[in-house]
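Re: weekly structure request thread

Next one in the queue (335 aa):
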Amino acid sequence: MNNQQEGSTPPAEFTERIARLLLSFISGLSQSLPEEDRLCKKLNDMAAVIRKGIRISPAKELDKDVEDYFDRLILEKKFVDGEKDIVKTMVLEVVETIMSMMKSSGNFDGSIGECTEKIQDAETIQEILKVKDYLIVEMQKVREHSHTLHEELEKHRAATETLSKKLEESEAKALVDSLTNVLNRNAYNLKIGQLVHEYKRYKEEWALLVLDIDLFKKFNDTYGHKTGDKVLKSVAATVLNSIRASDHLFRYGGEEFVVILGRVDIETTKKLSEKIRGEIEKDYFVDGDNKLKVTMSIGAAIITPEDTETSLFIRADKALYQAKQNGRNQVLVDI
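Done, posted below.
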């Protein structure tokens, strides 16, 4: 092989690979910055110049790893920022409760003022005793109301403290699965508590879906774990493309995923679950000369006032088990 002479043009393949790598870094950095940031604009301008000058093929190898790295960072940041907003909302709920207590105390102050005037104007013992009885009734009302508000305040305090603690712990952990580039179980544990709390306050229904790849073990046993990993990545991407922007996908563990569908009823839950199942069935994965078909069973449950984080998952998981027993590749909603 002849050595390349100094000053000669580098091979087109080398130039293209460097350009792809540079674009991956530029894209990741620009997405990490606010749109109004001056550096973001400069990076986007540079990316446009590179694309005009060189034919760019889809990312692969090192540049794909760089893109995946930035995707994980961006997804994790968005998720954590969203959870911080929820903590702010919960703190505002505490403020509302305290203000409610203050208003109640203000009403009581007014009652005391009225009683003082009546006592001063009273001319008989009977009139004074009437004022006393009235005051006792008002005091009892305030005591009962105050007790209820104190209980509500304590619930808010405990919920806020729990979520804040989980968020602090989660910031020290990875929240995105490194293989599939979707949210992981740490993120799920944080999100589910927040959603249960929101439901108890706003009563907006949402659904929990537990998804499991059918006979996944055969992919690992027949084609090897590398192929199994590729199937997991492909399935995660298909599910992510099948759900709405307001929904959340988590890799719960192994070949099991969890989807949270916001603002749904039973019919919408069935429809969206069937869409996911159908897209997985329609898709296929190519491994060498083999075209691998993948199917998925789904169990779903819609939250109820009686549900806890654990009970809701158990209901969806039981529905999943029944879907497997019924022949796999189907959706079953717990009612």
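Residues 28 and 192 are 29 Å apart (CA to CA). The chain has three domains: 12-58, 91-170, 177-334.
Next request, please.
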